[in-house]
Amino acid sequence: MQRTPLVAPIVGALLLGLGATACSTQERNYEIPSALCGTAVSPDLLEPFLPPGKEISMRESSLMGGFKKCRVLVDGIQVLSAGIDWREKEQSLTGAAYAAIGVDPGDKESDDGRYLYSDTGAVGEVVCPNPRRPDRRLFVTALGRGDGETGEAAMGKFIAAYAEAVGKSGECT
Questions:
Q1: Where does the signal peptide begin and end (predicted)?
Q2: How many whole angstroms separate alpha carbon 54 and alpha carbon 34?
């Protein structure tokens, strides 16, 4: 009597069951938000930065000098942060990139020269029609988990949309 042939199907079934269990935990069990700390952003633009998990939350903070940060957490782990930063009027986009985490002045630049971005971070200039602080320039920043070229494209789209949304918000006027 030989029992070895039964071992392979049993082990295979166990591995298949473990694989199915592992896959079932790789779902988003939360709704993708349509705003970051009060600033409207399309869920489609946030989706690439949000991993599977059970719960999403946001934490907003303000620092001296007009800097505001919105941190997005999934199951208590930060996965994306977006900032709004009033800087000196002479500040350039590349100068703002030096101060931003996850983006470098040599990263990809948008055709209009308003955004620098990589797969992990971005900085963008906000156009304020009637700036409430005419002596300053407004920038937005983003820091998220990257995924190569896909992440770079997603970050570029996100920072452009976020800058536009901030430009239409009460932050400008």
A1: 1-22
A2: 18
Lowest mean pLDDT among 38-47, 142-151, 163-172: 142-151
How many independent structural domains does the chain possess?
1
Task: Answer yes or no: is 125 within a domain.
Answer: yes
Q: Is 16 domain-assigned?
A: no
DSSP E strands, 12-133: 35-36, 39-40, 56-63, 67-74, 77-88, 108-109, 115-117, 121-125
| DSSP structure class, residue 10 | H
User: How much is the average pLDDT of 117-139?
Assistant: 91
- The set of residues, in sequence order, having a beta carbon less than 8 Å from that of 25 and lying 6+ positions away, is 52
pLDDT band at 172 (very low <50, low <70, confident <90, very high): confident
Q: Are 79 and 144 within 8 A, CB to CB?
A: yes
